[in-house]
Amino acid sequence: MSVLQRFEKRLEGLVEGAFAKVFKGVVHPVEILNAMQREAEAHKAILAGGRTLVPNRYVIDLSPYDHSRLAPYAAALAQELAQSQAEFIGEQAWTVYGDVIVEIERGEGLDTGMFRVTAEVYTGGDVAPVSAPAGYDAGPPAYPAYDQGGGYGPPPGQGGGRNVRLVSGDGRTYPLQMGSTVIGRGDQANLRLPDVGISRRHARLDFDGGQVVLTDLGSTNGTMVNGQRVSAVALNPGDMIQLGTTTLTFRVDG
Q1: Helices 3-12 and 74-91 meet at what angle, rounded to 10?
Q2: pTM check: above 0.70
């Protein structure tokens, strides 16, 4: 039985078939799961050691009408979607950082029956979303400490410590802290750059002490690493990041 078939089977018994009534004539959960699987495929990034990293956080924007109808069942649906996506990722032998997370939100401007899926690598923060059940293993840890190439520091709590930073073309230095750093020109960005070619929330850097993963946040002009447009990629020392007209070099010292 495929992941989609198992998902449909679980939905049949969920809240006594309420989903069938809620989604009659509008967006259906299987369509959402299909889109999530496509997003994982589209945002694959190859890590050192040959592992394939895919997003673990999926934000589902529903039209205001669909969202209002779904509200009583949103938590249960998010749980089922997260579990099924984790199963799919595990079957592909892909890697994720932490649990698979699904959030269902109201998407202004979407017509009834339409939805939008946004996928990203999520390493933690203030959000408390619904995730796959504890104990479900969707694959090996995303950021092992590499002794020979591809790594640049021990994981948290294992000693060492290196200076991980970005250096701009004019010599300005931006140290990276553990966790997530959003780059952009808007007020919500942690690292603000005065470049009109950069989106308000352009890209995000996730640093867990062992690796830094750069993720484009759906920017207008895209994110380039060493001349190649990327959606998500693990950075190596010396990589050149291009955002708008700004070039940042990824440096690791110590």
Answers
A1: 160
A2: no
